[in-house]
């Protein structure tokens, strides 16, 4: 049995923990044991599911209490004698992997799931200070895309083949378009006769919800039959709700919050808009395409997210009219896209990718 400590940080309903959970659900439990090491202030921990699958949640202090964080981690690493510590907290991985090294853990993986944006200059100060040390305590480097790998570990490391790309895979069958889900949800949410713009993402500056609301406001002035359906929550949710109310859009925007079954909501949408300031990949855009949705994403989203011909990219500095035109084209494509069978999703099929991860864990341990 290979024991793996998954360093998650805060579990708040974001994409990184969703990816780790996707792998955990299908990994061979007779060969691998996962402990999820998460901050005590996490708001969305699927404790029951993890424990039912044989995993374990271990709560630790937030890394802002650095002395307590390190002391607690060291004790955990020593007591549990992990074969592998796999850290998913980007530049901050240098901290837990340093503790793991001191505790004698031989295999220490730093996993890059994101990049950065110049507009988030406060967060970038910390990121840029820690980036040069991203490889310091790691024995192996993983990334969700080439862009994320080059951003954290550098071009030289990537070009020399030192970075392994582990795709943010999903259960393809679960995300396929479902007419019954569409009819039921559109009726329940009073969206029956609407053209629905969809979005899934944590309410934080990276996801650029304020721009999304501006876009939707402009779109609604041209087409009164549109509605906006948003999944997720987060620190900026109240701010965005206030903006929606201030623009008189309250009756046209549906805030769903975090749900345990986001896959069913894609079928209720007609297009998916993803205007992020930056992404390591943007898994929800992949999910949307698998669900048969055309996607309009910002050019800050990596091109690897495009797994169908119905994914369009628009610059965040482009005129709002360009975004509106892209969304309107998506509405026209929706019927064709939903029935399209040529989704190039092989690299994102969890059934294939979990085998790759299992082999990596086995070979790294050896």
List keywords for this structure.
366 residues, alpha/beta, Rossmann fold, seven-stranded parallel beta sheet, six-stranded parallel beta sheet, 14 helices
Model description:
It is a single chain. With 366 residues, the chain is α/β, with parallel strands linked by helices. The chain folds into two domains: 2-169 and 349-365, Glycogen Phosphorylase B (Rossmann fold, 3-Layer(aba) Sandwich), CATH 3.40.50; 173-346, 3-Layer(aba) Sandwich (Rossmann fold), CATH 3.40.50. The protein is built from 14 helices and 13 strands. The chain has helices at 15-26, 47-52, 66-80, 94-102, 121-130, 146-153, 155-159, 179-188, 209-222, 237-246, 263-266, 283-290, 320-339, 350-365; strands spanning 2-9, 32-39, 56-60, 84-87, 107-112, 140-143, 163-165, 195-200, 226-231, 253-257, 271-274, 295-298, 311-314. The strands form two sheets. Strands 3-2-1-4-5-6-7 form a seven-stranded parallel sheet, with helices on both faces. Helix 5 (121-130) links the parallel strand 5 and strand 6 (140-143). Helix 3 (66-80) packs across helix 4 (94-102). The longest helix has 20 residues, at 320-339. It is elongated, with a radius of gyration of 21 Å. The mean pLDDT is 91.
């Amino acid at each position: 049995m290979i024991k793996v400590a998954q360093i998650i940080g805060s579990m708040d309903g974001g994409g990184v923990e969703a990816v780790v959970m996707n792998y955990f659900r299908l990994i061979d439990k007779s060969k691998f044991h996962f402990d999820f090491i998460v901050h005590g202030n996490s708001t969305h921990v699927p404790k029951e599911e993890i424990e039912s699958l044989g995993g374990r949640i271990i709560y630790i202090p937030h890394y802002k209490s650095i002395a307590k964080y390190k002391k607690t981690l060291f004790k955990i690493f020593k007591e549990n004698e992990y074969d592998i510590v796999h850290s998913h907290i980007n530049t901050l991985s240098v901290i837990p992997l340093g503790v793991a090294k001191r505790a004698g853990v031989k295999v220490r993986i730093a996993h890059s799931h994101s990049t950065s944006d110049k507009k988030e200059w406060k967060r970038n100060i910390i990121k840029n200070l820690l980036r040069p040390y991203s490889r310091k305590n790691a024995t192996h480097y993983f990334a969700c895309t080439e862009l994320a790998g080059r951003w954290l570990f550098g071009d030289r490391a990537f070009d020399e083949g030192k970075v392994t790309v582990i795709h943010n895979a999903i259960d393809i069958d679960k995300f396929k378009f479902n007419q019954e889900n569409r009819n039921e949800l559109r009726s329940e949410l009073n969206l029956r006769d609407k053209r629905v713009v969809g979005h899934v993402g944590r309410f934080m500056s990276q996801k650029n919800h304020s721009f999304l609301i501006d876009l939707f406001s402009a779109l609604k002035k041209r087409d009164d039959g549109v509605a906006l359906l948003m999944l997720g929550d987060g620190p900026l949710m109240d701010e965005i709700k206030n903006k929606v109310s201030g623009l008189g859009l309250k009756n046209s925007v549906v805030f769903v919050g975090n749900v345990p079954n986001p896959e069913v909501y894609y079928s209720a949408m007609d297009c998916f808009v993803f205007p992020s300031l930056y992404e390591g990949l943007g898994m929800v855009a992949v999910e949307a395409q698998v669900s048969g949705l055309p996607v309009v994403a910002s050019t800050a989203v990596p091109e690897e997210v495009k797994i169908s011909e119905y994914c369009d990219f628009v610059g965040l500095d482009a005129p709002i009219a360009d975004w509106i035109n892209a969304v309107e084209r998506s509405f026209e494509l929706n019927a064709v896209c939903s029935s399209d069978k040529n989704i190039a999703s092989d690299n994102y099929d969890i059934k294939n990718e979990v085998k790759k991860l299992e082999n990596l864990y086995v070979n790294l341990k050896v």
